[in-house]
Amino acid sequence: MLNEIDLSRTDLNLLALFEVVLAERHVGRAASRLNLTPSAVSHGLGRLRRLLSDPLFLRTPKGVVPTARALELSAPIADVLARVRSVMATATPFDPSSSTRRFAVGAPDGISAVVLRPLLAGLSRVAPRVDIGVRQILPSPARVWQTALAELEARLMDVAIIPSDDIPPRFERRTVYEEDFVIAVRKGHAFAKDPTLKRFCAMQHLVVSHTGDPHGFVDELLAKRGLARRIALTVPNFMFALAITAETDFLSALPRRFVAMHAGRFGVVGLDSPLPLPRFRLNAVAPKVAMMDAGLNWLFDLLAPRRRVRQGR
Length: 313
Known about the structure:
- By secondary structure, the protein is of the alpha/beta class.
- 42% of the residues lie in helices and 21% in strands.
- The chain has twelve helices and twelve strands.
- Strands 4-3-5-12-6 form a five-stranded mixed sheet. Strands 10-7-11 form a three-stranded antiparallel sheet. Strands 1-2 form a two-stranded antiparallel sheet.
- The longest helix is centred in the N-terminal third of the chain and has 24 residues, at 68-91.
């Protein structure tokens, strides 16, 4: 905790500097984002280290890494900055038509490939100078998204879009769209003429897995029926899966909207699965405290518009 003497000599810009260095993990890149020289950033970090009595960031050949104390401070500092930005927003209302802010949106690649096109279209109409950075989110074991939630609270990204309803109450959550899976095959594939479950199991399959684990939710559903399939290939992302599917006889279970939007240019089609596959919600998520920022609130509404509730007579 800062005492009154410390607080009286604290420069709020030092907290903003901390936030950017934590996000970039590199003094030079942080300096570029802040329109400062690297020496000015280093000087500011020195002041912050003395103020907080911790090294905060340790130099490595590739940049800097945060200390345990820096990671511990990341959430409360993000909270302080969000509240300050909210106060400042009341003095200067956020105007998307003239704003030059940059927002970071995190999502798995199969989701960002769906939401990015309408997001960019919306920005071109109403916020032509707002920039977007897309941050890829990877699930941790057992499809848990705790890492994404931690990165939101550390302000490494502004909004995350994840396939989970298990969101703690300290986060704002709103459904962007609902999704299910289809079986993607190249055009002219023989399976399309007779897409039975028996033939499905007899085919070679491609699975999207960033870890290379040749086992997915489809295999769990097959196992419940005493069935199995051969996974001939794993690839780390959905776009790569489309490219490979277009040139092979592999079958791949891919998100329906993703296939509808991108498969045509690869010469791939989506078929209804002979095995019932789950349907799930994609939710936009942001810390509730950060939603006090008018700009972030606007972006959240752009990604996940509020649904109008019809009033009965």
